[in-house]
Amino acid sequence: MAVDLLATSEQLQRIKFCFDILQQTSEGYPFVTDLTTGAVLLSARMVEEYNLPGTVLVDLDRYWVPLIYPEDLDAYEASFVHIFEAGNPGVHDIEYRVKNREGEYTWIHCHGMVGRDDSGNAVIFAGFITKMDRILHADPVTGLLNRFAFDQAVREGVTAALAKGEMGAVMIVGLDNFHLLNEAYETHFDDVALRQIGQSIRNVLPTHLNLYKLDGNEFGLIWPHTSQEEVEIIFSSIQLCLREAKESNYNVFFSASAGVVFYPDSGTDALALQKHAKAALEMAQQQGREQLLVFSQQEYKSWLRFINLQHAFEESIEKGCKGFRLFFQPQVDAMTKELIGAEALLRWQEEDGHVISPVVFIPILERTRLIIPVGRWIVEEAVKVCKKWQEFKTGFQMSVNVSLCQLETTDLKNYVKESLERHELSPECLTLELTESQEISNWQFVNEQFDFFRQMGIKVAMDDFGTGYSSLALLKYFNCDIVKIDKVFVDNILDSEFDRKLLKHAIKLCQSIGMAVYVEGVEEEPTYEYISRECGADVIQGFYFGRPEPEQIFRERFQK
Ligand code: C2E
Ligand code: CA
Ligand code: CA
Fold it and tell me: Which of 28, 122, 340, 358 sits 20 to 30 Å CA-CA off 143?
């Protein structure tokens, strides 16, 4: 409640007189409480900052306590109990968080003291409240302004840009390889290096721009009135200065990437701008080193999708790959139409039951290398199912897809072998299909890996023959047993004489060098007829004989 005590009390009038001088000569907010009446005199700036109802209040706590950060409340209350205890000098000296007019918690330092009369009764409590952001605005390691200062600068920058109708940029620079360097050297290397890097970047910036040190190895910049060209130029000079600032004692090079968001075009909320600049940085770092990426809502959406899926996959892996399923698509003998086996195809089912295509999520698993643990589960499941189906059909064949990065761990050899042993499945019944052969440059390594499996009796297939470039060259480099001809070779054969000839000769060529040919994507009877009768393919896999289906449905089909 705001009251007009001053009009009646001469003593308070005098206090107010002193008080006005104090509030004009100090950066803090003075306060005086008359403990006999409970009236508190507050500085006008404090009233403004925390949206209080007036400069003289008899019930300050009613407005003040709800503003205190809940976790700090106990310390606040304990201090007041303490200072009024008899014999206590009555010094209140505490830091806590209070919500300001904007609804943000900011740290304050409250330093006050109880005054007593001749009989020792507490009659007055007075002191200063200081906002701590000024003190807290320096980063202790680099001496640069810190993220609190950055946050404030972004806020002010946006307000100014809106008022002037200008465009500005928020940029977050992150060091690409910093964590690796940090692991390689002793502790405190990071502090020394960060200080030097901060200084180097600072030196290439125009003098009117501040550099801020954010969390980890990230630096922030806020740029009023700028353009994309200008941002690109500055980013190049940051790159250059990092290359030149080779850390003398450690003999290492640093490189940086950056995420940029332009305001007000891409938003006016300071927190969202910082979040988006950070997301753009992460996207940039995903793309490789030394990248600059400008935030766009569309890319951000797919990035969020990526992040969400990645988290879901990580969680799933911890729970034994819950949510992943294998579907099975029949493979039939091209001549007799007899079922000989199946390809195991991975599916991901979201919590709402929605199933997403492997075309979307396999690249995510590959990029995050989560395909390695998931791949282990796939092999185990596929081998288990294959063994079970041998009861219905002796020699049932199972094909499992393998991504390149799965070959890069020694793990694959072990668990394939272990799975076969555990389920007592003959290696001759398993085929491994290498899915991304177009991307491979080190064939010697790949062949070495696969030779291990081939020696065991496992068959190796080249997937997607005919997609990408130089498939023909792959036949020369890749020691495999089976070539799987992609659907693109098949799609037009009913309409195009050229495509018919191409497919036929491709099949003959592969067979002439000793490979079995599987043809994928066969959807209709006439296509099947041509490929089996005219081309003499070995095995057919396509919707004409069945789509990928869950285990139960697949089994019902071939038990008929
Ligand atoms: P892929 O290995 O070439 O698998 C064949 C894809 O073609 C499957 O798509 C299958 O459903 C589809 N297909 C088969 N016959 C026909 C047909 O007659 N018509 C049409 N339109 N499509 C047909 P799916 O299951 O969506 O898999 C897509 C790709 O995802 C696979 O291509 C493979 O590269 C990858 N993938 C799937 N499962 C795994 C896995 O367990 N591990 C790895 N590394 N990759 C996998
Ligand atoms: Ca495949
Ligand atoms: Ca394929």
Answer: 28
48 lines ligand 1 (CB under 6 A): no
Task: Give the residue, by CA position, lying nearest to ligand 1 atom 4.
Answer: 345
Q: What class has domain 2-132?
A: alpha beta
* 20-60 pLDDT per residue, tens: 888 888 888 999 999 999 999 999 999 999 999 999 999 99
What is the spatial distance between Cα 247 and Cα 416, in angstroms, rounded to a whole number? 45
pLDDT at 141 over 50: yes
User: What ranges make up the beta strands (E) of 297-452?
Assistant: 324-333, 339-349, 355-356, 397-402, 430-434
Q: How far is the CA of 468 from the centre of ligand 1 (A)?
A: 16
What are the DSSP calls for 167-191, one per residue?
Answer: -EEEEEEEESSHHHHHHHS-TTHHH
Mutate to test the pocket of ligand 1, among 386, 520, 522, 523 (most ligand atoms within 8 A of CB): 520
**351-372: per-residue pLDDT in tens?**
888 888 999 999 999 989 999 9
- Pick among 3.40.50.12780, 3.40.190.10, 3.40.50.720, 3.20.20.450: CATH of 329-345+368-559: 3.20.20.450
pLDDT tens figures, 254-288: 789 999 999 999 999 999 999 999 999 999 998 88
Alpha carbons 377 and 419: distance in angstroms, whole number? 10
Closest residue CA from atom 11 of ligand 1:
548
Q: Which atom of ligand 1 is nearest to the CA of 543?
A: 18
Cα separation, 258 vs 481, in Å, equals: 46
Q: Is the CB of 366 under 6 A from ligand 1?
A: no
Ligand 1 probe mutation, 328, 331, 362, most atoms within 8 A of CB: 362
Q: Which residue has the tokens 């290397």?
A: 189
Beta-ladder partners of 326: 346
Over the stretch 445-487, which tens digit does the pLDDT of each residue have? 999 999 999 999 999 999 999 887 667 888 889 999 999 999 9
Q: Give distance in angstroms: CA of 330 to centre of ligand 2.
A: 12
Instruction: Render pLDDT for 224-263 as a digit per residue (tens, 0 to 9).
Output: 999 999 999 999 999 988 887 765 555 667 789 999 999 9
Q: Is the CB of 358 under 6 A from ligand 1?
A: yes
